[in-house]
Design goal:
The complex is a heterodimer. Chain A is α+β, with helices and mostly antiparallel strands. Chain A contains 2 helices and 9 strands. In chain A, strands 1, 3, 5, 6, 8 and 9 form a 6-stranded mixed β-sheet that branches. Chain A has a 3-stranded antiparallel β-sheet with strand order 2-4-7, with no helix packed on it. Chain B has strands at residues 7-10, 14-15, 21-26, 49-56, 59-66, 75-80, 86-94, 99-108. The chains are: A alpha+beta, B mainly beta.
């Protein structure tokens, strides 16, 4: 869905940008979150280089309320005993803690899940999917957040 | 937490072998992220549901590990391909160790 950018949105986005800049200046915690997400990615991929594709992340382009952002993740996988997706991890690098959720699938499930997540600020959300053969796929979506979802 | 009644919705309870059932679950929980501060500026400690399991006859077929970034009143929508008839058990595990549980019967023919 594409939103037309009206005056209200433009103002909200401008405010968001100012907040984001202010946060970027306080680089300490953001840096820590980046390191934590790098570590989480390393633990998840087990040394495999993630390949773009197969996993698809659906998120709104603009989230008015960062407290509850609907998210769907789907993976192209036959979901048979021979070939299925084992685990999907969702990371939000702009959150104080980058970990959001990880789903574990089996041949008795379909590689698709939907939930609602919190996003502190405008940022990239990352999905990583690990197949049963160890290969890792990824997707990234940027979400513009007008009201952050971390309380204060 | 024992008084929390999760809401479970299956799009069908009977399915042919290889068929897919869509599951929707909703449970009441504040999912306190551990990031918020109270009036005195003290951090409110994290208290969330950290694990969700969907088991069929005691075998986990779908599960999730949650962090503080999952919204309050966690909602899931997912699909299962049950191999046999039996009991679906839905379990949420709280940081304090308590559990919220619900069951549904399904038939695979």
């Amino acid at each position: 869905m594409r939103h037309a950018i009206n005056r209200r949105h433009a103002l909200a986005l401008a405010t968001g940008a100012v907040v984001a800049t202010t946060l970027a200046l306080r680089a300490g915690p953001a840096h820590a979150a980046k390191n934590a997400s790098d570590e989480a990615i390393k633990a998840f991929t087990r040394g495999k280089e993630p390949v773009r594709g197969k996993v698809r992340l659906e998120l709104p382009e603009i989230a008015e309320n960062g407290n509850t952002v609907p998210m769907t993740v789907t993976v192209e996988a036959p979901m048979t005993e021979e070939s299925f997706v084992e685990e999907v991890m969702i990371l939000a690098e702009g959150n104080p803690n980058p970990g959001v959720i990880s789903f574990r699938f089996t041949p008795s499930s379909v590689a698709e899940a939907n939930t609602r997540i919190r996003l502190a600020e405008t940022q990239n959300v990352i999905a990583l999917a690990r197949m049963n053969d160890g290969s890792v796929f990824s997707d990234v979506k940027q979400v513009k957040v007008t009201i952050g979802g971390c309380g204060g | 937490m024992a008084d929390v009644k999760p809401r479970i919705k299956l799009d069908k309870k009977e399915v042919a072998k290889g068929g897919v059932i869509e599951v929707k679950t909703l449970v009441s929980h504040t999912m306190e992220s551990g990031q918020r501060k109270d009036k005195d500026g003290k951090t409110i400690p994290r208290k969330i549901l950290n694990t969700f399991n969907c088991d069929l006859n005691g075998k986990t077929i779908f599960s999730a590990n949650m962090e503080g970034a999952v919204s309050a009143n966690p909602y899931f929508q997912f699909k299962i391909k049950p191999a046999e008839s039996g009991t679906l058990t839905f379990t949420w595990i709280d940081d304090d160790g308590s559990k919220i549980q619900a069951t549904e019967q399904i038939k695979v023919s």
